[in-house]
Design goal:
The complex is a heterodimer of chains A (306) and B (279). With 306 residues, chain A is of the alpha/beta class. Chain A is built from 7 helices and 12 strands. In chain A, the strands form 2 sheets. A 7-stranded mixed sheet of chain A has the order 1-2-3-4-5-6-7, with no helix packed on it. In chain A, strand 3 and strand 4 form a beta hairpin. Chain A starts with a helix and ends with a helix. Chain B has one domain: Immunoglobulin-like. Classes of the chains: A alpha/beta (306), B mainly beta (279). At the A-B interface, helix 4 and helix 7 of A face helix 4 of B.
Amino acid sequence: MQAAVAVVAVLFLATAVSDAASAPLSVSEIAPGIFVHNGVQEDASPANDDEIANIGFIIGDDAVAVIDPGGSYREGTELRAAIRARTQLPIRYVIVTHVHPDHIFGAAAFRGDHPDFIGHAKLPGALAQRGAYYLRRLREAIGDKADGSEVVPPTILVSSRIEIDLGERHLVLWAHGPAHTDSDLTIFDQKTSTFWLADLLFVDRIPVIDGSLVGWLDELRKVTAIPAARAVPGHGPVSVPWPQAAAPERRYLEAVARDTRAAIKAGIDIANAYRHVAQSERGHWLLFDDYHPRNVTASYKELEWE
Amino acid sequence: MGMTRGMFGRAVPAFLLILLAFGGTAFATPTEAERAARWSDLRHAIFGERVVEDAGGLVAIEAPDRAEDAAIVPVTIEVSAKLATELRGLYLVIDYNPSPLAAHFVLGPLADARQIETRVRIDDYTYLHAVAETADGRLYATARFIKAAGGCSAPAGKDQALALKRLGKMKLVLGEHQKSDLPQQAKLLISHPNNSGLQVDQLTHYYIPADFMQTLKVTYNDQLVFKLESDIAISEDPTFNFAFHPANRGNAGVLTAEILDSSQRHFTQSWPVPAAPQM
């Protein structure tokens, strides 16, 4: 009789988790209670299911905060499984660090948890402009594996700074000026002095300029002045020394700014400028040829108004 | 044939609009024969039964073979020096864009038509066609294939707050002072989102309304350099590199740019053009 009850209970449990039951995403505990999945340093493809960004979660005494739900509904369910393998605490917050597809499309996997979705005050506008396009591109990149992915609007907007409490664990969220995008949020965990920079910090993979080059250099000056035991980049290793890990990114952005200004002054046209800009950086970055020309086009457009 | 009002407020044959509706990415990669048929249809829609000659070496399109950013593809139309003096218009057609007629420059008496550059959105691998129209009505066409995709529906705005703040502002960069027998080079930057209206707001499921520059008129001391009729194919923050021959080059003058956009906003800005140094 007891055995039968146990079997029923096991069956019931198996059914209960099956709708969320993707294999748990692999995560590393980089500091007590902070778990990060290491995205691969590639563009979205069927081989990587758009699992290309560093995403994760922070567990407090009372609740869990997700930081970037991932690049697809599927990755979101895998991230949720990774959380549930470690804690049954409620998932109270899903923080979206910016508008890019590899960070946002897992959000729908957390709807059933009824969390607050937190984003930059400019995130709704950015999602409106770009969401449909990103969703179409995701489907082109990973096909049916994009199923279930959708744009989820934020329910809490951050225009400068807010704090959230996970139970004996305060997270500070900062909204930045246009930098990597115009909707960048960073998160500071006071308990472990961990600074989650997301895509304000690229390590090894070439930074993508999709907000403002000048703005990014400004924000970088501000965030590198904040001491932290470690940082979490949006792309790169899951944990890096801070602020040392920002040095290559700053060097690249400064080289792009300097050389693009020179190209504009010399009358080199926008299509060819990248050949003359920051070529000394080529050997330092993954995906350089995929993103550098576009970075220079964006920078040229920005700097020609100076 | 049924006629309907087009983008530019003039009559456009209905079949062009049907082409627009079914164009772009609706089909698999077109064959060369299909591409030729599309150009033939577009040519008839824009120029009717007029003869369009092959430009040979008289007109050329300069553009990257493969665009790094399909929303910002620099395109230069080059015209031979002799033909340039006879022109009254230049057309740029992007065959597989949702709205293929990207630009129509009406050239004024001060224009130097040898070289004019702008930046465009390109939605799919396509031929570009440039057609030069002489004052006596001859048409000369040339083509260039370009690999780019997604530029029309791609979200361009990187900093939306800045775009709003700067809407309608212009910047003119004059080339170095030339001797008086040479044209004056100029680069005109216009801050305008030039929204294609092809993006859907995912949160509301409404289309974000199109908001684009319809006409740009550039004059020097009230004489026409060029007037552009354009639409969504011109990139965000429209930019033009052009040259003109100021009358009375020994005296300073004023260059003026006037814009009318699809939201019926007018923007006007003027800049002094210094006198050319004496020879």
